[in-house]
């Protein structure tokens, strides 16, 4: 810190000192200053208790307890010249203790504080005024697990800053403020500056943390889905084996929502589909040529009545002119993510895999010949006249 000397147009350094040099204590000085001037911590806070010890089965005391503008509880821990290595652990303990406090308990805690330090004031009325609510019944206090931590000290040890940064990354809301005393003759000064996270980076860090939290949630959801699918396919393959269906005998369970089995013609395959809301069997025409797939579909569609008679019911014929693949399907609605529905769902798949194989196995030789003919024509059309001369 520097003092500006107008006459000499120079700046003069003001001596930085320690709290211990000045004879200040944590409880009677730093704590009192912040209790009476909480906006020194760069936000509106309502101090509701000092030296709070209202925890069951412990005599520990947190320094200051506050409410922020969102109704969250804020645990403020003060240290003097050195943060100490255990300050984060202390604050986390206090936050965990406070996480169970109800709205009425918080109002009682604040009322006891007012009765001792500002007699005649009503805690519920002050809370309503602070949060901008007309009725205490509309007030929401201490929602969820959003208790916050503020640590104040002249210096923070490396193990403390490292832990705080890790906690911030995992959406535990912690701020560190450096409180520094200065002396100029008989005049004393105090600076209180936020050092973690830096104010200009705080919004960015919160945004990044929220994004990472969403990504981690999505990854956890994906892992759960993958595990669910693998479990379902394992049970389905066992059921197919038990029913003497050889179509999937060399196929392993998958994390995907589909499980394919070859038809014996390149680019054509059977599929079982496991969705959240349905089970489905497909006969897929997926050669490398869109034109070939459409021609194969048209060939089969011309034999639709015969194929559906073998299958035993109507099928969904999907030429899909805008896509490369064409499909012939049969589906049924199920609550696929409810394991209680799995036996019925698997029984349906086993039955319809059998039907699909029975309906299309007689088409194999014609489809194989048609694929060869059509692909041969495609290759011939790609050869320019005279290219072989």
From TrEMBL:
Domain DUF4268: 228-361
Signal sequence region: none
Pfam families in the cross-refs: DUF4268 (PF14088)
Example of a GO MF term: nucleic acid binding
Organism superkingdom: Bacteria
Coiled coil segments of this chain: none
Protein name according to UniProt: DUF4268 domain-containing protein
